[in-house]
Amino acid sequence: MKLGDIGEFGLIDRIARGAVFNSRGLIKGIGDDAAVIAPGEGNVLLVSCDMLMERTHFIYGRTTPFQLGYKAIAVNISDIAAMGGKPRHVLVSLALPQWITVEDVEGIYTGMKDILSRWSVNIIGGDTVSSEVLAIDVTIIGEAPNGSVLTRGGARPGDVIMVTGNLGDSAAGLEILLRGEMAGRVPQSDSKPLLSAHLTPQPRLEQSSVLVKLGFVSAMMDISDGLAGDIKHICESSGTGAEIYTGSLPHSQSAARVAEIAGKSVIEWALSGGEDYELLFTVPQDRQEEVVQAFSENRLGPVTAVGRITGPEGGINIVGPDGKKYTGKEGFEHFAEP
Ligand code: ADP
Ligand code: MG
Q1: Distance (Å, rounded) from C-alpha 279 to C-alpha 115?
Q2: E strands, the chain, where?
Q3: What is the 45 CA–ligand 1 centroid distance (Å)?
Q4: pLDDT tens series, the chain, 338 aa
Q5: Is the dihedral of CA 64, 65, 66, 68 positive or negative?
Q6: What is the dihedral of CA 51, 117, 149, 125, to 10 degrees?
Q7: 3-class SS at 38?
Q8: β-strands 279-283, 219-222: how paired?
Q9: Could you identify the atom of ligand 1 that is nearest to the CA of residue 92?
């Protein structure tokens, strides 16, 4: 069905159906000039936005509308998780090309509502415009008790650098997606989890909530550009340096096998593949065991120490298993800069 057949308001009507999953604090959602929300008492609001743009962030046809919608929300929820907050509401702006059908747009919202329902987050508004390329821009509003927010700025020399989950799965999934000939060479048991890691990433909200409760996390962010690049943000905000040990990087066996087939390095994917949406955080050295314990008790998946925070003088160093500076296949000198 063409969008013209139902018009902008017909479309908004369809979007608005089943858009509310938790009405607490929601006074007015879709349907007025602005949404009206009330934060919980003693809470601060966390606000962020992230846009997915056709050709820059995805190729239409290599991903389903469902996956697109799912990912647009997942990456935004990840930003709230990274601050130690709870996601509450989203606003969705759509730039829609002529060729897109009502079914495509509904597919995008089905993917959005799938993950929104899982975390009880509401769609409370948005905007719809026509455009040459498809773009989905999501603004997310989250909440956290005043004083419990985790920023990038609290890391101290001596702190241990830790990450949740595995790194490099998303890059491995992208490799499969972009190189058609890979599909026949990689077993489904490997390609399935890697493609999901790339197309429908899981924001680490449960992990974030446990880390907030532990109370001693000094800095936190989510990994969107790759560990090697993202650790710089913690170092800049905290006024520190860091060492990352490539021998400690957690990666899946599936990603390692795909790297082997593709002639790529799984370590480089783990360092700079990006789009993993895992949490990167720092804790005082004597608290590392408590983190591992809490993750195992709550069945939160892997959590791994991958480095330590140093003074600012040394900048950021990627250290290989031999204790020497890691240069990788093509050289990683650019990580030497603080
Ligand atoms: P206005 O012209 O006042 O900006 P619109 O006609 O664009 O209002 O939107 C009407 C209502 O529908 C508003 O509540 C708006 O937030 C919501 N809305 C518009 N587009 C979207 C969309 N793509 N997704 C969700 N809500 C939308
Ligand atoms: Mg408008």
Answers
A1: 18
A2: 26-28, 36-37, 43-53, 86-96, 122-130, 135-145, 160-164, 219-222, 241-245, 279-283, 303-310, 316-319
A3: 22
A4: 988 889 888 999 999 999 999 999 999 999 999 999 999 999 999 999 999 999 999 988 889 999 999 999 999 999 999 999 999 999 999 999 999 999 999 999 999 999 999 999 999 999 999 999 999 999 999 999 999 999 999 999 999 999 999 999 999 999 999 998 887 899 999 999 999 999 999 999 999 999 999 999 999 999 999 999 999 999 999 999 999 999 999 999 999 999 999 999 999 999 999 999 999 999 999 999 999 999 999 999 999 999 999 999 999 999 999 999 998 755 444 444 43
A5: positive
A6: 50
A7: coil
A8: antiparallel
A9: 24
For residue 32, give the ligand nearest its CA: 1
> Measuring from atom 11 of ligand 1, which residue has the nearest CA?
31
Q: Kindly report the protein residue whose alpha carbon is nearest to atom 5 of ligand 1.
A: 127
Nearest Cα residue to 36 out of 46, 26, 44: 26
**Contacting residues for 158 by C-beta, under 8 A, at least 6 apart:** 284, 285, 308, 309
∠178-179-182 over CA atoms, to 5°? 130
Nearest CA to ligand 1 atom 24: 126
Residue 165, classified by CB atoms within 10 Å of its CB into exposed (0-12), middle (13-18) or buried (19+), is buried
Report d(CA 122, CA 142) in Å as an integer.
11
Q: Which two tokens stand for residue 103?
A: 């079914």
Separation CA 112–CA 77 (nearest Å): 11
Nearest to residue 245, comparing CAs of 213, 214, 267? Answer: 267
Residue 271, H or E segment: helix 266-272
